[in-house]
Write a structure and sequence with these properties.
Layout: E1 5-16, E2 19-30, E3 34-38, H1 45-52, E4 60-65, E5 68-69, H2 77-81, E6 84-87, H3 99-109, H4 115-128, H5 144-156, E7 162-166, H6 174-189, E8 193-197, H7 201-207, E9 210-215, E10 218-223, H8 225-228, H9 235-245
Parallel strand pairs: 3-8, 3-9, 6-7, 7-8
Antiparallel strand pairs: 1-2, 1-4, 4-5, 9-10
């Protein structure tokens, strides 16, 4: 396996009771690659993402991130997760903390940075996501798009080697989606390794190095956007794309 493989998933299966959600997924993500996962609701996309950082424990198979096997019973998950950023559909900010404090807290608790160092880094990252003037705002005072950008800054503050985006724009009003996608696009241009579950076909088409189409717990088709989105081979992919692109 090349040293540039950041995420290596082998024969991943996940069942919830009798519901077999993931059925033998094999997927590798290279350093600096942006992989967008698309597919209908219930196809297992978010479950796959949550297995990558072990928010869901796989039923079978292995997940290796940066050479660490997270599915190994002896793996130090806290240590491994420190290298994996995650941005959720719901922003999961602490409501009683300002934007700045939300970006500082894990830096201090997990990375043991001093208050001053954490604040300096947080200021810089809030500026990067276009929120320098919102340092002292609480989540309730921010729009959904602003909250999600704070959440991205919080993920970046941990210096992750890979960031997982789970439907990061699907809880947002349509007019706020663009500001979040813009930040994600700038991260991609800077070489961040990203695994993105998304319904935003324009983003997948314009930013992804590779698009993975999932349906019913399996990877049906994958390849560059020019192939998967513009000229899909599989009938299931074509049917899905015609339904999302034409409504």
């Amino acid at each position: 396996m090349s040293t540039d493989v950041v995420v290596n998933i082998t024969n991943l299966n996940k069942s919830f009771g009798n519901n077999h959600v993931l059925r033998g997924i094999d997927l590798q993500v290279q350093r600096g690659e942006v992989v967008c996962i698309i597919g209908p609701s219930g196809s297992g996309k978010s479950t796959l993402l949550r297995c990558v950082n072990m928010l869901e424990t796989p039923t079978a198979g292995t997940v290796v991130v940066l050479g660490r096997e997270l599915t190994d019973i002896d793996c130090d998950l806290d240590e491994a997760r420190a290298h994996i950023g995650m941005v959720f559909q719901q922003f999961n900010l602490f409501p009683h903390m300002t934007a700045l404090e939300n970006v500082c807290i894990a830096q201090r608790k997990v990375l043991k940075r001093s208050a001053d160092e954490a604040a300096t880094i947080a200021h810089g990252l809030l500026a990067r996501v276009g929120l320098i003037e919102k340092d002292d705002a609480y989540p309730a005072q921010l729009s959904g798009g602003q909250q999600q950008r704070v959440a991205i800054a919080r993920a970046l503050a941990m210096n992750p080697d890979v960031i997982l985006f789970d439907e990061a724009t699907s809880a947002l009003d349509p007019e706020l989606v663009g500001e979040v996608l813009q930040v994600m696009q700038s991260l991609a241009q800077d070489g961040m390794t990203m695994l993105v579950v998304t319904h935003e076909m324009g983003f997948a088409n314009g930013v992804a190095d590779r698009v993975v189409f999932m349906d019913a717990g399996v990877i049906v088709e994958q390849g560059p956007p020019s192939q998967v989105i513009s000229a899909p081979v599989e009938e299931r992919t074509r049917a899905f794309l015609s339904s999302v692109l034409n409504h």
